[in-house]
Specification:
With 320 residues, the protein is of the alpha/beta class. The protein has 14 helices and seven strands. The structure holds S-adenosylmethionine.
């Protein structure tokens, strides 16, 4: 396959910036927590040499198959391993001897491939089963979630994950509709949402975008998964280990920003204490005080990079 074919599967965002920030050591151990189509993974593997190793992880089996194809074509003396797992199984999904990392990348959210495949049910533009699970082996589908959730919980979910202004009327319309028959197709949900919002909103674009985003985040427990990952990262990084995180949602970016601030300034003493008594010393330094965004050139090539925000951190002495 050519790189254009790979990019049709998923174009990696902020690729140059990620590789610069990771500062890959040829004999280092790196984990890509979100292998996807293997774009970032392949670029990391190309930088690795003798003694180096890349672990590419994803909870989507189709992503691991695509990554395997791509990584097997990289000419390198380094090795790679694929792991089917979620952030919440990290780091126990790694071999004991692989739990001291030189670098970790997580490029959050969904891949273009997941959105493009009708049968995965992620897209409000295509008809398919209302599934939305990144790992199709387990968990509740979006249809099952919609069948069970209370109206109040649905309103809260649409507000929090979808930042949906019409959360109340959309939730009410969904509850009314499911009393007649279950909502099982993406197009059924799109139509319910379209009828629940004012016509002026329909004229601005597809009004189901935020509802689909909110359901996807809930089905895949994306916020909880990220919280787990952020909690585990400091335990597993080597001295000078680098972490790069890319988010596409303000809630996720806030979580990443707060975690990196905490790692840099973990002291819990009241600000008026003359000396620190909690004993919590800095774990490292932020490499980005503000998130890095895609350049105009990248935006032209890949409009999906518009909402990407990248933050990077370097650990000093590993776990303390
Ligand atoms: C934006 S894509 C990554 C694209 C990849 N960087 C590339 O270059 O092709 C996000 C990927 O992360 C995976 N993913 C998202 N959340 C995950 C989680 N909690 N655990 C494991 N994989 C996850 C998704 O299945 C998806 O394949």
């Amino acid at each position: 396959m050519t790189s254009a074919d790979y990019n049709a599967w998923h174009t990696p965002v902020l690729l140059r910036e990620v590789i610069e920030a990771l500062r890959v050591k040829a004999d280092g151990l790196y984990v890509d927590m979100t292998a996807g189509g293997g774009g970032h993974s392949a670029a990391i593997l190309e930088k690795l040499g003798c003694g180096g190793k890349l672990i590419a992880l994803d909870r989507d089996r189709e992503a691991l198959e695509a990554s395997d194809k791509r990584l097997s074509q990289v000419e390198t003396e380094a090795s790679y391993q694929l792991i089917h797992a979620s952030f919440s199984e990290f780091p126990s999904c790694l071999e004991e001897e692989d739990r001291r990392l030189d670098g970790l990348l997580a490029d959050l959210g969904v891949s273009s491939h997941q959105l493009d495949r009708d049968e995965r049910g992620f897209s409000y533009l295509k008809d398919g089963p209302l599934d939305m699970r990144m790992n199709q082996d387990k968990g509740m589908t979006a249809a099952e979630l919609l069948a069970d959730i209370s109206e109040e919980e649905l309103i809260a979910l649409l507000r929090l994950y979808g930042e949906e202004r019409y959360a109340t009327s959309i939730a009410r319309a969904i509850v009314r509709r499911r009393e007649l028959s279950p909502i099982t197709r993406t197009t059924e949900l799109t139509s319910v949402v379209a009828h629940a919002v004012p016509s002026k909103v329909r004229r601005l674009g597809n009004p189901a975008r935020q509802t689909f985003q909110a359901l996807r985040m809930a089905v895949n427990r994306e916020q909880q998964e990220l919280a787990h990952l952020l909690h585990e990262i400091p335990e597993i990084m080597k001295p000078r280990g680098r972490v790069v995180l890319i988010s596409f949602h303000s809630l996720e970016d806030r979580m990443v920003k707060q975690a990196m601030r905490r790692w840099q300034s973990p002291c819990e003493c009241p600000p008026d204490f003359p000396v620190c008594t909690c004993g919590k010393t800095p774990l490292g330094n932020q490499l980005t005080t503000k998130p890095l965004l895609a350049t105009e050139d990248e935006l032209d090539d890949n409009p999906r990079s518009r909402s990407a925000k990248m933050r990077a951190f370097e650990f000093l002495g590993g776990a303390q």
